[in-house]
Amino acid sequence: MPLLGFRPVVVTVLLAALAAPVLSGSPAAAELALTDHPTSHVMSPAPGGRLSVGVPATISGLAVNGEAGGVVQVEISLDGGGTWSLTDYAQERWSYTFTPTEPGKLVIVTRASTVAATEVPNSAVAVVVEPDNTFDALACPCVLWFNSTDFTMAEDPDEQAVELGVRFRANTDGFVTGVRFARFPANSGAHIGRLWSADGQLLAEVTFTGETDEGWQEASFDQPVPVRANTAYIASYYTPTGHYASTESYFSDLDFYSSPLQTLEQPFRLGEPRAGAGVYHYGDGGGFPDQTWHDSNYWVSPVLVAAPTS
């Protein structure tokens, strides 16, 4: 995000990092990298599906590379992208069998590869391992899944007071119970979480308490806020000291899906370039965040449940 009064200097490192192995190879490999776009999809279990401790389970899906074909492997992660394993892959279909060892939520992410390119995942599927009395039928409480494997969360040196957020929608009616954000130690002071309608109406706010020096922080509203399916909202937080988490170009050409939640790019405006889901607003005390900068992600998420908590 631009520092007010300064001319921004943008260095594009992600594309260079991705292209470097190709450019050092043959011209044929470089041509393949430009045309290969492998994608993978989880077909079973469905989001919110139930598995059981000690019972073998199979996760399966598809992987394609358009008409070109050439997918050579599919990897799977059960912890949102932290660790990866190879699946059994053949003829655009893959499967992975394992035995759950403990109850809780699994966040399934997959990535397909050709000899020249590897998929950058933008979706996740959450399932629940039983016995469990924590998660509802949609495996919620739910938060947005962010890809931290292919994108780096960085501390922005900006020291100005600012509201930072994300546009999102749910594919079902539900209730937003709070807001969470990723914090660096220098992002100090009193933080306020907020939920907004797409037209700027403030729906709820909460002051964060009991924060840790860094990592994900979460605060709950006094009352869950009902939200409607397929309707845009903005979850945000205010920091008086800046030094917020930021990743430029994160939302370039992509929204991120983790049913029932997904990020939501800005509405199309004739004559204006496409803009990603990350939003901000400068000013003491914060305010409705409706500005964008280089498709940045500010690592903010709503917390959603399918029914209000008691």
Sum up the structure in keywords.
Jelly Rolls; 21 strands; Immunoglobulin-like; mainly beta; about 300 residues; 5-stranded mixed beta sheet
CATH architecture of the largest domain: Sandwich
CATH fold description of the largest domain: Jelly Rolls
Topology, number of strands: 21
The CATH top-level class label of the largest domain: Mainly Beta
Structural class: mainly beta
Helix content: under 10%
Please, what is the average pLDDT? Answer: 89
Shape: globular
What's the order of the H and E elements? HHEEEEEEEEEEEEEEEEEEEEE
How would you briefly describe this protein structure?
The protein is built from two helices and 21 strands. It is mainly beta and 310 residues long.
What does this structure look like?
The model is unreliable at 4-33 (pLDDT under 50). The longest helix is centred in the first third of the chain and has 10 residues, at 14-23. This protein has two domains: 36-130, Immunoglobulin-like, CATH 2.60.40.650; 154-305, Jelly Rolls, CATH 2.60.120. The chain has two helices and 21 strands. The two termini are 39 Å apart. Strands 11, 13, 14, 16, 18, 19 and 20 form a seven-stranded antiparallel β-sheet that branches. It is mostly beta strands and 310 residues long.
